[in-house]
Design goal:
The complex is a heterodimer of chains A (about 400) and B (about 400). Chain A is α/β, with parallel strands linked by helices. Chain A has 19 helices and twelve strands. Classes of the chains: A alpha/beta (about 400), B alpha/beta (about 400).
Chain lengths: ~400, ~400
């Protein structure tokens, strides 16, 4: 894509106090060009100790989890539990456009860094607070990590084998959805500000965002009383979600419109068991899953998943391979779109970074730097922007402030 | 009523499925006027194929509440011309048809730019608009297959293809991300004096959350596999069986301090652990035995009692809720008024999820019922396209406005 502008959020300063719940939120802002300053406690963000690690060696600079989420940021250390640390944060907040934080509700106020305090000297400030349950309500002080967000969302009760423990999803999707809504809220608040409005405080609840991941179960329950579970979803999925075994793995064939069904039957050579016109109706297929499952399974077993994918799509049928992470990374499509960018980190070495998405035609996002080492930009920010001397940094470091 | 932040922004929606509709719906909730283009010639996936049920689907209400419906036959030159006229009067075009449809209708970016250079186009597609598989037919559920998410969503060492439930999170996350991008592009429009288009691939947006897994491959050369509910940093961790049929509570104990409170609580209720599980390492290594010990306690108790008791001592715990629980037992949704009742003209009362991002100065609002098929066709033809009643009647008789 050509570019005749800068990144969408270039010129905006974000102070990042986020824990994992809002990691994807700040990544979106950073990838879209914001100048993100990650504020870590002295010794570094606890997420530096989250696996996986380079060579499986636990090390504060080798967490691949941290690396994915903190690329494109600068990093400083600052102890918000120390009075001097808080006063430095207030100075930083004066020139910031956005603060993103994930502390329990009320914690920032207790530190004297609540929205009221920060916006007093900077009325345009946008502060996004992403928390498990939001700023109000009886559960507001409850602890919840991603698995708890999934559990409450009704997604987990449907995941896994009937009778077995419900399963969490890979990739922290409850955090991901909360983060996405958080980034959207920040964008709206900045838009309002650009139109002459003042700043504001944004309250995002992971628990509420979780309800938006799971599909249509809430509106359907109100209408029909349907209560899906791991047991109920067995047997309701014929040719909708069922994976079919290929020679070398699985494909999923996901058919809604009847013309796609007809194309599939033609492709399989019109096998007698399911060629009848009554099978064009999804309801009929669900009522008679046996011949459908058997016939499609027999067909798929004769081909590789790549053959099924290529030929199925050529025939305008929604067939996709069930890929591993490696197969996705190495696929021709991923490569053609340059989704992974070669980068280098001082402790991790060369790696492939997940590039900025979504993609803007005129003002695309960008990757400018790898994740910061602990306190890497202390001098740049404290001396360069706040006017501290190098000697001051020694004093502040010894006092446990930075 | 308070003015909404995106008031004055008009969105033209040419979509199907869920991701495109979600993008436009989120913009609508923050003030945009959304005109959904559809046709009586064929019900959209969520209206269904049966005309008698077009206005009665709870899924449709969730996706389209608050929008306007304009019905037109896009197979006719006159129909396409009317929609082009509408595009001239819109700030944003949201679309997610298969690649080639928008091109055929004369509304892909180069053509749209001729019509209306300040319009922003967001293409909320499965695999994006470039690359060898850009034209693939996909839906939210089979986008996860391609990125590796479906494969990873399983029990460790599983022999099945996947445990992924019937869900489509890339649809919803992709839609909200698209709305985020649109707001950024609206801000950019002022700076660069023109619109732009956004390649908003659900695949790439959803896959971003698997970034650490991709790094596991690109840095360590190891193919990540399904991990189920396993954690190396927390134990107990996972879903624990509670009293009742298929009742579970997710529990995650991260620190030694949490563990000490947790184990004391269980011991006080008469469960002896014989000096076991004292260290983090022992708990993670002997997780199966630990889980059995924990379930001796949880299985005797109601899932909500487990959650309340554990949250009372500061331990992360959350009921594995089903949709009925969300309606009847989720005290937090109730207190925050999260579930929103809409009175639909034909569907009756439909309950949908509220807005999970709350802005203090410019909050969004669920703006009303979903439109009946073609409810606003005449209004839009008259007020926006400037057609006379006689012209509208002729276009209806010619099968253009239908």
């Amino acid at each position: 894509m050509k570019t005749n502008g800068t990144a969408p959020l270039s010129g905006y300063r974000v102070l990042d106090l986020a824990g994992p719940l809002a990691f994807h939120c700040v990544k979106l802002l950073a990838d879209m060009g914001a100048d993100v300053v990650k504020v870590e406690p002295p010794g570094g963000d606890p997420a530096r100790h989250v696996p996986p690690f380079k060579d499986d060696m636990p090390h504060a600079e080798k967490s691949l989890y941290f690396l994915h989420y903190n690329t494109n940021k600068r990093g400083i250390t600052l102890n918000l539990d120390a009075r001097e640390g808080r006063s430095i944060f207030l100075q930083l907040a004066r020139s910031a456009h956005v603060v993103v934080e994930t502390f329990r509700p009320g914690h920032m106020d207790e530190l004297g860094l609540g929205y009221g305090a920060l916006s007093g000297t900077n009325p345009g400030l946008v502060m996004a607070s992403l928390t498990p349950f939001g700023q109000t309500g009886p559960w507001r002080d409850y602890k919840a990590t991603d698995i708890a967000g999934l559990a409450l969302s009704n997604l987990m009760v449907m995941t896994g084998e009937p009778g077995e423990p419900p399963l969490q999803a890979p990739g922290e999707v409850a955090y991901g959805m909360a983060s996405t809504y958080g980034a959207f809220g920040v964008a709206v608040a900045l838009y309002h500000r650009e139109n002459g409005g003042k700043g504001q405080h944004i309250d995002v609840s992971m628990h509420e965002c979780g309800a938006h991941i799971a599909g249509y179960f809430i509106p359907q329950y109100g209408a029909t009383g349907a209560k899906p579970s791991r047991a109920s979803r067995k047997g309701e999925e014929t040719d909708l979600y069922d994976p079919y075994p290929a020679k070398n793995g699985y494909v999923r064939i996901f058919i809604i419109p009847s013309e796609q069904w007809r194309r599939l039957v033609d492709w399989m050579g019109r096998p007698e068991a399911i060629a009848g016109p009554e099978f064009e109706k999804m309801e009929h297929r669900r009522q008679h899953p046996e011949p459908v499952l058997r016939t499609i399974t027999e067909f798929c077993k004769r081909h590789t998943k790549e053959e099924l994918y290529e030929e199925g799509q050529k025939r305008r049928i929604s067939v996709t391979p069930i890929n591993t992470a490696r197969e996705f990374m190495e696929s021709a499509h991923t490569k053609a779109r340059h989704l992974f960018l070669e980068m280098e980190h001082p402790a991790v070495g060369k790696y492939l970074h997940y590039g900025p998405v979504p993609r803007f035609s005129e003002t695309p996002g960008r990757v400018t730097r790898t994740a910061p080492l602990i306190g890497e930009h202390n001098e740049e920010i404290y001396c360069g922007e706040l006017g501290f001397s190098k000697k001051d940094l020694i004093t502040l470091g010894a006092a446990g402030v930075i | 009523m308070q003015q909404l932040p995106l008031e004055g922004i008009r969105v033209l929606e040419l979509t199907t499925g869920a991701a495109g509709p979600t993008c436009a719906r989120v913009l609508c909730e923050f003030g945009a006027e959304v005109i959904r283009v559809e046709t009586r010639l064929r019900g959209d996936g969520h209206r269904g194929e049966d005309p008698k049920k077009w206005n009665k689907k709870p899924d449709f209400v969730k996706l389209h509440r608050g929008k306007k419906s304009f019905t037109v036959n896009m197979k006719l030159d006159k129909g396409r011309e009317l929609v082009k006229q509408l595009a001239k009067k819109c700030d944003v075009l949201v679309e997610n048809y298969g690649l080639g449809v928008l091109e055929r209708w004369g509304l892909d970016y180069p053509q749209l730019k001729e019509l209306n250079p300040s319009c922003i186009l967001v293409r909320v597609k499965g695999l994006g608009c470039t690359g060898p598989h850009a034209a693939d037919l996909t839906w939210g559920p089979n986008v996860g297959n391609i990125m590796g998410g479906t494969y990873l969503w399983n029990y460790p060492g599983a022999t099945t293809a996947t445990a992924e439930p019937r869900t489509q999170h890339p649809d919803f996350m992709g839609g909200v991300t698209g709305a985020f991008a649109v707001v950024l592009a609206l801000m950019q429009r002022k700076k660069i004096g023109q619109g732009q288009w956004i390649d908003n691939a659900q695949l790439e947006i959803g896959a971003s959350l698997l970034g650490p897994r991709y790094l596991e491959y690109s840095v360590n050369g190891r193919e990540p596999g399904p991990e189920g509910n396993r954690s190396l940093v927390a134990a107990p961790y996972g879903a624990y069986r509670c009293k009742g049929d298929d009742r579970w509570c997710a529990i995650a104990v991260y620190t030694q301090e949490e563990w000490e409170k947790f184990s004391r609580l269980l011991e006080h209720s008469g469960l002896d652990r014989n000096g076991q599980f004292t260290t983090h390492l022992e708990r993670v290594r002997r997780r199966e035995e630990l889980d059995r010990w924990v379930e001796m306690w949880t299985s005797q108790r109601d899932a909500y009692e487990v959650m309340e008791k554990l949250q009372g001592i500061g331990v992360c715990a959350a009921v594995v809720q089903d949709v009925e629980d969300q309606f009847t037992r989720d005290a937090q949704y109730a207190a925050r008024g999260f579930l929103v009742k809409l009175k639909e003209p034909e569907a009756g009362v439909v309950v949908t999820e509220g807005i999970p991002v709350r802005l203090s100065e410019t909050p969004g609002r669920v703006r009303g019922a979903a439109p009946l098929m073609g409810e606003h066709t005449q209004e839009i033809a008259r007020d926006l396209l400037g057609l006379s009643d006689a012209e509208i009647k002729t276009l209806e008789q010619e099968g253009v406005l239908t």
